[in-house]
Amino acid sequence: MAESVTRPLAGKTVVLGVCGGIAAYKAAELARLLGKQGADVRAVMTAHATAFIGELTLQTLTGRRVFTDPFQLTQESEIGHIELADAADLIVVAPATANTVARLAAGAADDALASVVLASRAPLLLAPSMNVNMWDSPLTRDNLRRLVDVAGARVVGPGAGFLACRWVGPGRMAEPGDIVEAAARTLSPQDLAGRRVVVTAGPTYEPVDPVRFVGNRSSGKMGYAIAAAAARRGASVHLITGPTSLEPPPGVDVSHVGEAREMRDETTAAAGSADAVVMAAAVADFRPREVQASKLKKRGGDEGAATIEMSENPDILATIGARRSERGDALPILVGFAAETEDVVENARAKLARKRCDLVVGNDVSAVDAGFSVDTNRVVFVTEDGEEARELDEKAGVAHAIVDRLVDGLARAGSDAPHLARRANTRRGDGGGDGDG
Ligand code: PMT
């Protein structure tokens, strides 16, 4: 998987414009995080910004001289605002104060930052931060709209909350991690723009009694990585997740579920308007037949062993596949996973047919570096046309490879997916919903 897709900021020159607002202190963390993504960060500060954060801080974190004054000959000859404007792959202004937003919207070139922005053809990302009334001002809104409509700027945030000016409301600069994600998205191909993708992730927990459940070792990492990759590439993503300790990726709609039947209800409802459904969740195949109203007690002695009778859970993937085939539900792409401990390709191929998917991602979950909980995975893509075995990769890399498949499949399917529907209808099936996993 090309680094330009998995790490879009790597090797890119990112001009970080810092303005004079209290959130300027967060620019230090932002510079650090951008550098961690492999970007060459070139900080440009307004005069007011230097009152909030020292030049030395940004210089130390970026390893580059900070540009503050295009009118100082020594600085200009060392860096040069045109040179910086030309070198930029992306300009991020964070915090973007009301004053600088107004100057940029007016096309001003009255300081280093405004000069670089005006002279550059690089995409512009603004992270506004200001007093709530300044944010609400029609003048600020008009300035921002102008920057978006006329200059093609993108905006991340602001968030709402308790502001340094003691007002409560919108005006807080977006968190540095969210700004980095917005920057990565700005430099990523938007090949899923306008598409709706539903992703399932994590385990399901099937209750035994008020304190116990039957679950599995899925951490949610694989599904969350797919949701993040699809969102970064422009899709509107609905992540349906079982219990995990992960933070959902920014910009993704999230439904938290517990049991398999809840996941089924959410997923089948969401699938109705989706372009693609990707089922990375480890759905429990069985649930206790009865949920005890109170905590099961140890009985001790010869009667110590407890027996829990199990019922079969619905197979969500097979249900969606069957509806598509039999009712003609308009779902262009259906992707399942196959968690296998042996004969990965054969078992994945059997699931492809039985669950009527377009792609099954087989993974050998007995390998220590693949499958459950770890950060890497080794998968084989199985389709009607053949197999593609992939090398061990970060789950983010696997996720982007799956997104590539979605992009290709959707391009082939066309907007109303007639050929996939037809192909699905010609398959022989068993009605779905049964069989193991
Ligand atoms: O979450 P991680 O720690 O990152 O681990 C990732 C993973 C190992 C969970 C993931 O890569 C994976 O393999 N997910 C599928 C796990 C699974 O349940 O596999 P299966 O072979 O039992 O099921 C096949 C497919 O049917 C899966 O897409 C599954 O979501 C779906 N299924 C299974 C049972 C069921 N009752 N309903 C379903 O929809």
Give a written overview of the molecule.
With 437 residues, the chain is an alpha/beta fold. It folds into two domains: 184 residues, Flavin prenyltransferase-like (Rossmann fold); 204 residues, CoaB-like (Rossmann fold, 3-Layer(aba) Sandwich). It contains 17 helices and 21 strands. α2 crosses α11, α7 packs across α10 and α12 crosses α16. The longest helix is centred in the C-terminal third of the chain and has 19 residues. The C terminus is likely disordered.
Topology:
Blueprint: H1 3-6, E1 13-18, H2 26-36, E2 40-45, H3 49-52, H4 55-62, H5 73-78, H6 81-87, E3 90-96, H7 98-105, H8 112-119, E4 124-128, H9 132-136, H10 138-151, E5 154-155, E6 159-162, E7 168-172, H11 176-186, E8 196-201, E9 206-207, E10 213-214, H12 221-232, E11 236-241, E12 253-256, H13 260-271, E13 276-279, E14 286-288, E15 310-312, H14 316-327, E16 333-340, H15 344-354, E17 359-364, E18 376-377, E19 379-383, E20 386-389, E21 393-394, H16 395-413, H17 418-426
This protein binds ligand PMT.
